[in-house]
Write a structure and sequence with these properties.
- 4 copies of one chain form a homotetramer.
- Chain A is an alpha+beta fold.
- In chain A, about 35% of the residues lie in helices and about 20% in strands.
- Chain A contains 5 helices and 9 strands; from the N terminus they run H-E-E-E-E-H-E-H-E-E-H-E-E-H.
- Chain A has helices at about 5-25, 80-90, 100-110, 150-160, 185-205; strands at about 35-40, 40-45, 60-65, 70, 95-100, 115-120, 135-145, 170, 175-180.
- A 9-stranded mixed β-sheet of chain A has the order 4-3-2-1-5-9-8-7-6, sandwiched between helices.
- In chain A, helix 2 packs parallel to helix 4 (about 150-160) and helix 3 (about 100-110) packs across helix 5.
- The termini of chain A are far apart.
- The model of chain A has no long low-confidence stretch (mean pLDDT about 95).
- The interface of C and D includes residues 28, 111 and 205 of C.
Chain lengths: ~210, ~210, ~210, ~210
């Protein structure tokens, strides 16, 4: 069983995150899924197929780190396991957000078979933990889209264990996953990634023009 | 005669849809028209030429499936018949929305004489009913614009009877028609189509640049 | 002297127009000026240099058709005369709006020395009075920018007397002027022009790509 | 010690500026920093790392013109010194705003090694003090990004003393600094710069297409 006061706080965080992310256009058409950690083994996560800008209390449910519903008969997002393996990978994660923006979709598709996005010389790289300068190279992996979520959960975990400083990943033609110690940190990472992807997309349209 | 309680609910759905769609920029300058089914033979539909972000109760009226006004002296949208034939085609449709976005206009014109838009490998294709994977091909027909609405109603009906899984269609240089079992479903289809068209437009601007 | 009740209504229309136009991004940085006709010989017009999204009652003043302040010591917009000659040209004009959008600025500059913008095959051309089909050609003149407003007022008037169906004009690198029988009509014309210019700009970026 | 009533007013100006700038998308992911002058030797400035759209009273602090905290144990923005040298340079400055927009980032990077942005023939150049016509050339310097803020403060000061009419500067891949006699003036300068940079970016994407 989970602490209900903590559950209520975390569910509210998820609801408010959805209001912001939908308004930004990053979670259209009931896409996306969001979660917040309740305790070591439990997370509050969005129920499958809900309007992300108008989440109601019963649009949030609890699952354990194996992705099984707890105290609920609802069905969580099809991608629940991608959240679970992130919380399992790092004890200090408090939230995981998955969004579907036009920029993430177009950029990951435009990069064709390339399996990562390179970000460099952007001041905003400093929005991610442990980055103190714009001078380094930030590497965001891009995984191929699949409906086999279990396989993708293994693939992402293997990558992150090898490159633990990675702050986010993309799924091609699909969207962004990012995480943080708190919901506020995780929202900051989304804002930073969306900003950086918007810059990269605009820069690509300018290529050869200057 | 129509059930007035159902009429009131459906009219309110249309009003709220307009507030959202105008705010998104998809129904500018009194363009667009919206409808919701009241019963087997009647729909609530927008009166011609109204500001779609500020629809008032008397900006909605009832027509039957032949497009004739019911209990009203108002004039419904010039494109009423395009709504009627959709409801007549499928008993399970609860709402029809027609919008005029920049993306729908530019993309349908940019495709020149091509009579369809192909969408493939987008996770968001799953926003449409019966689609469980990003791997299939989604074909959205594009009809030539005309002021002869009766001819267009026959042309769209003939197409949809042949390809009944089609979730939406475009009219070139004009806009999008989509439908669903409920108003919420239909709004989700618009959000998904606008997202996918925005992706396609941005991808076209990147072509040959990567 | 003007009818104060009519003045109050017209001033409020101008204030609300500004709230909408600023929010759309079409009147940034205290640019733009708006007016509404009070009677045959008087208009309510914005005072020079005010924030258009937060117009207060004393940011509106009255001028006569010669552009002279009436019952006021305030200074009206430097472009007041461009409004006056429009009201003088046509008795049935109730409002004139001048906006500064990115699209109007970029498109008018991109067209180089061409002195008009041609719009064709857009359903939204029907937003303008007297246009019943998308099939015609809509010609929007582009005047060269100048700080000599008197000269520009003569140039625009001469053009409009020759082509009285013109619904709007552009000043290169500067912005859009449009007008209508009512403030609602004039706002609809701006929405339509901004939509059409956004379509043209996006289409230009696609040229040679399809 | 500072006058507390003036401090409260200036802090509130900073908070409201942040609400506007975040909503515009110009201060994402806790980037940006803002200040307002309290008296000859003191300014109210944002505390490091705060969400700029939701600044609370304790997210603002006072520093002197040497950048040292006054009546506070908080840490001001890493770029505090860039604000201080501007107030030191000109007694008539009442506010300094630093923002991080996509346009400023992409445009400053796209210009490669060029150390300035040239703006010409835009009516909106008149939004800056002392500019009465669109015909002049407005030169906005671009400084290379660095984490050595002291060096950058010397470099910017040297430039501004040589070219005192400069209304703003860019840091490459980083953002915009602008200033004014009041917060309202400074916000107007940001709006104008963002408008002009948006125009320049769109114009670059059109190059060779017309």
């Amino acid at each position: 069983m989970v602490d209900l006061a903590i559950y209520a706080v975390k569910a509210q965080e998820v609801i408010e995150a959805g209001q912001f992310l939908f308004a930004e256009g990053w979670s259209p058409a009931t896409s996306s899924n969001y979660s917040a950690r309740i305790d070591h083994n439990h997370l509050a996560i969005t129920v499958s197929g809900k309007h992300k800008g108008r989440l109601k209390p019963n649009d949030i449910m609890v699952v354990d780190l194996q992705g099984q519903p707890v105290q609920s008969k609802l069905k969580s997002s099809a991608e629940t396991l991608l959240h679970c393996v992130l919380y399992d990978w790092r004890d200090d994660l408090g939230a995981v957000l998955h969004t579907h923006s036009v920029a993430a979709t177009v950029l990951s598709r435009a990069l064709g078979r390339v399996d990562h996005l390179i970000l460099q010389d952007y001041e905003l790289q400093k929005a991610f933990p442990g980055i103190e300068t714009h001078e380094g190279v930030l590497r965001i992996p891009i995984f191929e889209n699949t409906q086999d979520i279990e396989a993708l959960s293994l693939e992402t975990t293997a990558y992150l264990k090898q490159y633990p400083m990675t702050p986010a990943y993309l799924i091609r033609g699909h969207g962004l996953y990012t995480w943080g110690a708190t919901m506020a940190d995780t929202l900051r990472h989304i804002e930073a990634m969306e900003f950086l992807m918007a810059c990269e997309l605009k820069s690509l349209t300018l290529r050869c023009k200057i």
